Amino acid sequence: MKNIDEIIEELGLDNKITPQDIPSIDLYMDQVTQLFENTFEKSKRHPDEKVLTKTMINNYAKGKLLFPIKNKKYSKEHIMLIHLIYQLKGALSINDVKTVLSDLNDKVDVEQFNLESIYGHYINLHDTNVEDFKADTKKLSSDVENESVELSTEDQAYVEQVLLIVSLVNRSNMYRKLAERLVDQMAVTLDEN
User: Fold this and answer.
1) What is the C-alpha to C-alpha distance for residues 57 and 66, in angstroms, rounded to an integer?
2) CA trace torsion 86, 90, 96, 97 (10° rounding)
3) CB atoms within 10 A of CB 22
4) Per-residue pLDDT tens digits for 110-131
5) What is the rounded CA–CA span in Å between residue 85 and residue 42?
6) What residues contact residue 21 under an 8 Å CB cut-off, 6+ apart?
7) CB neighbours of 9 closer than 8 A, spacing ≥ 6?
8) What element of type H or E holds 143?
9) 12 CB-side CA count, 13 A
């Protein structure tokens, strides 16, 4: 098995679209998809995968995950929201993503919210999350090695990989379930208002 640090580095977890990366002029859809493709290319599992397609963006717009697009151009705020959708859809259903972003979309659309400020905080947290992930993964990898020492079989490397994969998925499921509960709580609060 490759060193866990090498594998993590290959994931491109540091890739993100900062407010400074987004042009101050509105972009056409092709320019938006190219921005995402260039930024997240290292994050793709397979080279032929698409990070973001025109169909995806159209579906986000039709599903009201984005406030209305004007003149077929996407503003800086649209790109920030698309980035949030890109991150959220990896773990949540589209309906959950809509719940999370609906109030934000409404407020950005009527200019009651400074999305760039919130997005900047998200980017800061992203960087912290990446560092925490790296540290947690190293510890988990060490825990798996310690756990599998007793096995000492010819298949020990394989068993370590299985245990690490199962442990990572277990943690992922815990985080996803917590996020889903928070979405449910948010939905109730939004319904009450």
Assistant:
1) 9
2) -10
3) 21
4) 777 889 999 999 999 999 999 9
5) 19
6) 35, 39
7) none
8) helix 115-148
9) 12
Burial of 26 (0-12, 13-18, 19+ CB in 10 A): middle
Summarised one tens digit per residue, pLDDT across range 39-74 is 999 889 898 999 999 999 999 999 989 989 989 999
Q: At what angle do helices 115-148 and 94-109 cross, to 10 degrees?
A: 150
172 and 161 Cβ atoms separated by less than 8 Å? no
Q: What is the mean pLDDT of residues 79-88?
A: 96
d(CA 2, CA 15): 22
What tokens does 147 get?
């756990």
Q: Count of residues for the chain? A: 193
Q: What is the pLDDT of residue 157?
A: 84
Task: Name every residue whose Cβ is closer than 8 Å to that of residue 82 and which is 6 or more positions away in sequence.
Answer: 32, 36, 52, 57, 60, 66, 74
Question: Is 189 exposed, middle or buried, given 0-12, 13-18 or 19+ CB atoms closer than 10 A?
Answer: exposed
Helices 115-148 & 76-88, crossing angle to 10 degrees? 20
Place of tokens 């609906």: 102
Q: How many helices (H) and strands (E) does the chain have?
A: 7, 2
